[in-house]
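Complex 439.
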Amino acid sequence: MDSAEVSRPVRRRPAHRVPAEFRFRADGFRYAPVGVKRDPDPYLCDVAVVGAGPAGSSAALTLARAGLRVALVDRAVFPRPKTCGGGLLFRTVAWLDLDLGGVVETQCFEAKLRHHRPDLVYSTRRDAPIVSMVMRDRFDAFLLDAATRAGAKLFQGVTVKAVRVEVDGVTVQTTEGDFAASYVIAADGVTSIVARTAGFPDLRNVVPAVEAEISVQPERLQRFAAAARFDFGLVPWGYGWVFPKRDHLSVGVLTTRHGNCNLNEEYRRYLSAVGLEHPLKETKRGYMIPLRPRDDLFAFPRCLLVGDAAGLVDPITAEGISAAVRSGQLAASAIVEAQGVPDAVMAGYRTSLEREFLRDLRAARWLARALYGFPTLRGWMLRRHGQRLSEFVTDVVMGTAHYRDAVLSPGNYLKLLGGRTAPTEPVARPQRPAGADNL
Ligand SMILES: Cc1cc2nc3c(=O)[nH]c(=O)nc-3n(C[C@H](O)[C@H](O)[C@H](O)COP(=O)(O)OP(=O)(O)OC[C@H]3O[C@@H](n4cnc5c(N)ncnc54)[C@H](O)[C@@H]3O)c2cc1C
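Predicted structure with flavin-adenine dinucleotide bound:
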């Protein structure tokens, strides 16, 4: 990443030396937006974004484009690895609105869902890529690069130790000195130190996942090349996946219930079940996925949680990049649109989250319990409606349907029991974008 600048905050100046116009402003911002009044010191900013994953970089990009002075702080030095399957849903690509051609490894226009015991296989196809596959080191560095090109200042290799939120601003304490900002956006992932030290309650239902990048023989690679594959009925309370990358496969397993199985053993069993045992090369890692927000709390005055730090992962698919990207954008837009007035920022962020995610996440949690908690019911439903349900989840991934459509309409239950129609009305299918063949 050529343009990402390695910066260190200089020691903070005593308060009496901060020019008065940078301290309190009528529009609620403590420090001047870039291009209007420049503060010479890099640690003084409008917004400190902690964490430069998809959530943080998306927030920083939106803020920098709006002309705000943004410090983007991450303990890692980029490009850095991130334990993740790297499956980008169609709706994520649409939200990003960037030319991702350089970082997309493969595109899957087909998704395969296999249910073991009873053995059922369903396949869905769309004209546009259902899932675009990326490697997170390159994808995250690409987003970060977009944010820094837009004007966000990157501080990498800098670990945040705590935040102190006050009436008129926020102090972010790091291993390299303090940052003083009008707002802090916590994009520091599932272990968020910002959320913890700002006083948010703990995340609920943080579950483990194991993922490996494996090299296999060409014929095996070829066998998995066309589709994103999901296997149910093997891992207790969870599923396994195989995602095709350019020259290897990403394979993983997750469970939606903590402590109910040994995931490393489940991973080995899964490899055998799908015929991928004894890979030529394997890099395996485990990490956590937050399947539930923190008591429905996403912001305090001057402190907003986004992405995994907010616990916005889809409880059915455990997919979190789309919510990370979109919540980063929404938090940033709330700050810009409310012109920095803390109560209006909080209300704006909450409203947009509710509209775009929270209603759907509540419905998805309900569906996830039915899907993972009752294998017999799941088998029965899939036998009767497997293709329709697969089409429905694919439409959710494409952004043309919502989980709440399935849960909140009583007619759907009757339809499912009667086996007559799909759980939602037919929706328009997105078309294959121009130039997609070139990727
Ligand atoms: C095994 C596995 C597979 C997955 N597969 C998929 C998938 O295929 N598709 C999908 O959509 N989602 C997937 N997810 C979920 C996805 O990885 C996350 O939801 C997503 O990365 C969240 O993005 P984020 O920006 O909120 O946080 P992160 O990507 O976790 O970024 C947080 C950043 O904060 C930084 N940070 C943390 N603490 C500090 C600190 N104290 N100071 C400074 N910086 C700090 C970190 O270095 C990191 O760069 C998977 C997760 C796992 C575990």
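The pocket of flavin-adenine dinucleotide is lined by residues 50-56, 73-76, 82-87, 159-160, 187-189, 193, 209, 211, 252, 287, 289, 307-309, 313, 319-322, 324 (CB under 6 Å).
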